[in-house]
Amino acid sequence: MRITVTELERFDNIDVYCRDIPAMVHFYRDVLGLELLYPYEEGTDWFAIQSGDVSVYFLTAAPDAQDTHFAPAQSVGISSFSFAVGDLDSAIQHLEGQVRWSDDVREWRHQNGTWYRFRFFTDPEGNNLSITEPHKVERMP
Predict the structure, then answer these.
(1) I need a surface site. Which of 19, 57, 104, 108 has the fewest CB within 10 A?
(2) How far apart, in whole angstroms, are the C-alpha atoms of residue 49 and residue 37?
(3) Domain 11-61 carries which CATH code?
(4) CA-CA distance, 18 to 39, in Å (whole number)?
(5) Can you identify the CATH homologous superfamily of domain 80-141?
(6) What gap in Å lies between CA 59 and CA 53, rounded to an integer?
(7) Do domains 11-61 and 80-141 have the same CATH topology?
(8) What is the rounded CA–CA span in Å between residue 129 and residue 121?
(9) pLDDT per position as a tens digit, 117-141
(10) Which residues 6+ apart lie within 8 Å of 58 measured at CB?
């Protein structure tokens, strides 16, 4: 049976493969201030954060990993993921000096009136992230 778009309510979780779990825990928990989904135990090969309704699992990317999530020779993955903020300028000021910005503030506008202000940065492993200030127009029925 095929799932229709209307049955998909929200993202539940995202898996991200990385090499240095402790550095990633520090960045996401201590620099960005995100809540860990489960207590992190030093030496484990994964951790998870909670950001709104979405859980993000960070897993060690090793060729010999036995984890069922591991995709050998993974050549594609998440391009980026964004965190919504109420005030982009304030969020940038808070993160200044703690993240490596990839670009200046940009805007994207849709013809329906929805628009976003955003700025990209990278985590310690080079994954693309952004903070975005959404200005969404309510969807019509």
Answers:
(1) 104
(2) 5
(3) 3.10.180.10
(4) 19
(5) 2,3-Dihydroxybiphenyl 1,2-Dioxygenase, domain 1 (3.10.180.10)
(6) 20
(7) yes
(8) 5
(9) 989 899 898 888 888 888 887 755 4
(10) 16, 17, 18, 21, 24, 25, 28, 46, 47, 48, 49
Residue with tokens 């975005």: 132
Confirm if 21 and 45 have CB atoms less than 8 A apart. yes
Q: How far is CA 102 from the centre of its chain?
A: 15
Domain definitions of the chain by residue range? 11-61, 80-141
Give the integer Cα–Cα distance in Å for 50 and 106: 26
Phi, psi dihedrals of residue 67, rounded to the nearest 5°:
-60, 135
Q: Give the pair of three-digit tokens for residue 35.
A: 């809540």
Read off φ and ψ for residue 6, nearest 5 degrees.
-65, -20
Structure token pair of residue 7: 């049955």
What confidence tens digit (pLDDT) does each residue in 75-110 have? 334 556 778 888 899 989 989 999 999 989 999 888
